[in-house]
From TrEMBL:
<keyword id="KW-0998">Cell outer membrane</keyword>
<keyword id="KW-0472">Membrane</keyword>
<dbReference type="InterPro" id="IPR051906">
    <property type="entry name" value="TolC-like"/>
</dbReference>
<comment type="similarity">
    <text>Belongs to the outer membrane factor (OMF) (TC 1.B.17) family.</text>
</comment>
<keyword id="KW-0732">Signal</keyword>
<dbReference type="InterPro" id="IPR003423">
    <property type="entry name" value="OMP_efflux"/>
</dbReference>
<feature type="signal peptide">
    <location>
        <begin position="1"/>
        <end position="18"/>
    </location>
</feature>
<keyword id="KW-1134">Transmembrane beta strand</keyword>
<keyword id="KW-0812">Transmembrane</keyword>
<protein>
    <submittedName>
        <fullName>TolC family protein</fullName>
    </submittedName>
</protein>
<dbReference type="Pfam" id="PF02321">
    <property type="entry name" value="OEP"/>
</dbReference>
<keyword id="KW-0813">Transport</keyword>
Amino acid sequence: MKRLILTIALVFPLLITAQQQLSLEECFYLVSQNYPLAKQSGLLENQSHLDKEAIQKGKLPQLDLNAQATYQSDVTMLPIQIPNATITPPNKDQYRATLDVNQTIYNGGLIDAKSKLNEATSKVSQQQLEVSLYALKNQVNQLYLSVLLLQENRDLLLAKEKQIMAKIQEVKAGVTYGILLASSEQVLEAERLKIRQQFTELDFTKWDMVQRLSILIGKELTKEVTLERPAIFMANSGSKRPELELFALQTAQIDHSSKLISKSKLPKLNAFAQGGYGNPGLNMLDNSFNTFYMAGLKLNWNLFDWNTTKVEKQSLEINKELINSQKETFELNNTMELVKIHSEIQKIEALITTDNDIIALREDILKTSESLLKNGVITSSAYITEFTNLYEAKSNLNLHKTQLLLNQIQYQITDGTYSKTRF
């Protein structure tokens, strides 16, 4: 019993490894989570939170501690003498230390405008990151379907090997009974060895691509990983390219910048208080160290800024036009790419139709060749030629089907309508 449990414990992990499966949607999700660039999302969010917190602290009282010691060449003196009174002029060396408190009472909503601009800037940065990650989808799509093609070609090669092995057994019987020459079996055996070579080449190529896909998506994959053939989903309502959302957010960012400029022109009212200790104090005629304080309100309003605000807003409007130009350029290039991919899809669909016709003919020809070989009318070499022709036609069909799928998915990625992952 213990031996059975030990055997299960050793074999079970191997079974789990052998059954590893992967889908294209999962790859899209993994690359968006594990790609080094994806780590910036949390950093940008944290940075935005800290910037917003710093901006909001502008509403709190501001405390400043100031101290100074000076020596001056001259001091204020009365130009007249007052009878029976002696007025001592201030010292040329003077000392002062103050604690200043300033509290914003009204600034036209400038702090809130800065906070909203910071939020808009953060959204732009996050969307720029999303655009960069979205661009990885085509790279993942190419690698994934390349591995899938090799995987399906291996299945085709297995069927090819199975058929050639069955034919070798038939030829052996023919050689035994003297119907066929011994060289007929040798030709087929050479073809079987050639198939084994193809397995070796295919397996090494597949493992190379699996490793590259593993690095890209940040998940360890085994040689035995099985890729699921992806389906083409209907577009989700509201799906679109992230670049278009980026252009919209950049425009909104400019709007917030314009509002911030407008707010900076409004009057600002502050309350202030100052307490200090110095020589002299507020009484310049008292030549001794004293404490002092003052409090009040301060209004600041820049009535004329030489049209700086107007010029800055005009500059922002030009930025808007530049973004609109970039958007139009992107949409134009994207439309051209879609036309190109759609044309490729139509071409491949036509090739697949012809592939099916070719395979049907090659299968009929091979059946005839099998009968002729069995009766010793043709050589094994002639049979191998037709046998190879059939499997080349099937391999072409596999290639074209995978190319069709690749372009269909690429079309939806380019169009921004590929179904969003549910992971």
